[in-house]
Automatic annotation (TrEMBL):
This is TetR/AcrR family transcriptional regulator. Pfam families: TetR_C_1, TetR_N. Keywords: DNA-binding, Transcription, Transcription regulation. Residues 1-21 are annotated as: Disordered.
Length: 237
């Protein structure tokens, strides 16, 4: 051993690794996602970053799907729920909450796609659902209809965020939209009379205008559509 060199430290002398925890695993997953995208958040990658084996992570997170749901739960904390207790029309306040939710997902395209199948169940998700149900109740939507309606509202918002975030990353999106508009305007009224009559409307409106209309449509539908079943549907369930 040369002068000035130090002997290798024994395992006992090395700093102890931080204890694994679900909170620590999710925090590291969120860090990787912010830097590199959700597709890079794998059990193997997490294990490497946390200096452990993949099998150790499954003690705290049962699957990659559960991990993605936990990441989504973390981001749901950024949804603005202040409109729930604010003044104003209940439909406007529902739209405000859902637009905030959509923006959170829109900022993270891979998370938006994961949210289509992820099933978070933490405090942030529960607060979001409770807030929407509170506003639907304020608007007089019967509880059973609100219970199904809130699911549809979140599906619409999630699908829209996933679609728009993908288009936002596509450099050809505007060209594709213009090509579709030309196709609709060039159809023959003899073969496609309804398309020809509504060509302008089919491609009209900003994304924000169309999103608000979709929310209003679902809310109005939940308010006016009772949960009824045919005997055949009841038997199938």
């Amino acid at each position: 051993m040369t002068p000035g060199s130090s002997a290798p430290k024994s395992r006992r002398e090395r700093p102890a690794k931080p204890a694994l925890s679900r909170q620590g695993i999710v925090a590291e997953a969120v860090r990787i996602m912010r830097a590199e995208g959700l597709q890079r958040v794998t059990m193997r990658r997490l294990a490497k970053e946390l200096d452990t084996g993949p099998a150790s992570l499954y003690v705290y997170v049962a699957s990659t799907a559960e991990l993605h749901a936990a990441i989504l739960e973390e981001f749901l904390g950024a949804v603005d729920l202040r409109p729930v207790t604010a003044e104003g029309d209940w439909r406007d306040r529902i739209a405000s909450v859902l637009i905030s939710y959509t923006r959170v997902l829109f900022e993270h395209p891979t998370l938006a796609h994961s949210a289509l199948v992820a099933r978070p169940a933490g405090a942030n998700y529960l607060a979001l659902v409770e807030g929407l149900l509170t506003l639907l109740d304020e608007g007089g939507v019967p509880g059973s209809q609100a219970a199904w309606g809130v699911d549809v509202l979140l599906q619409v918002a999630t699908a829209t965020a996933a679609e728009q975030s993908t288009r936002g990353e596509d450099t050809n999106a505007e060209d594709e939209h213009n090509a579709l508009a030309r196709t609709l305007h060039e159809v023959s009224a003899d073969t496609h009379p309804r398309i020809a009559a509504l060509a302008d409307d089919l491609v009209s409106g900003t994304p924000a205008q169309r999103l608000r209309w979709m929310f209003d449509m679902v809310v109005n539908g939940a308010l006016a559509t009772p949960r009824t079943h045919t005997s055949e549907e009841g038997a199938a369930s």
